[in-house]
Structure of Fatty acid cistrans isomerase:
Amino acid sequence: MLWLALRLLTLLLLSASVLAAASPTYHDDIAPLLANRCLVCHSGAQAPLGLRLDSLENLLRGSQRGPVVHAGDAAGSELLRRLTGSSQPRMPLSGPPFLEAAEIAMVERWINADLPAGNESMTRPAAAVPSLDEVVDYRHVEAILLRR
C-alpha cells in the first residue's frame, strides 16, 4: 500500500513538472503567434489605438484605452476577450478563420501564468512587416493569402 502511495505521488510530481515546463512564454510561443496573425495591423505608428503587439514591452504598454493584458487574470484581459469574441470586434479582423481553440487556450495559460517572457534569444523570426518606406511584396502578404 505504501508502495502504491509513493508511486502515485511520483506520478503527480512528474505531471506537475511536465505541465510547468509546458507553460507558454512570450518569446517562445506568444510572439510567433502574434507575428503570424496580428502584426499586419498591430505594428508601427499606424497601429489601431496605438496598440502595438510587436514586442513584449509594447504589448504590456497596451493601447490608448489602457492595458490589454492583466498578469494572472486572463478573464479580465481585453486581449483574450477579443480573441474569443466576447468583446467586439473579434480579432483578428482578417478572420475567419480566427485563432484555433488551442492557440486561444495557450494565450489564456500565458496570461494566467503571469506573462512569463521566456528566453529572448530563442525568439522565432517575426513575420515580414514592411517599413514605411518599403514596397509591400508577396512575402508581406503570404501568410494572409495562405489562410484564405
Observations:
- Residues 15-21, 122-126 have pLDDT under 50 and may be disordered.
- Residues 2-21 form the longest helix (20 residues).
- The chain is about 45% helix and 0% strand.
- The radius of gyration is 18 Å.
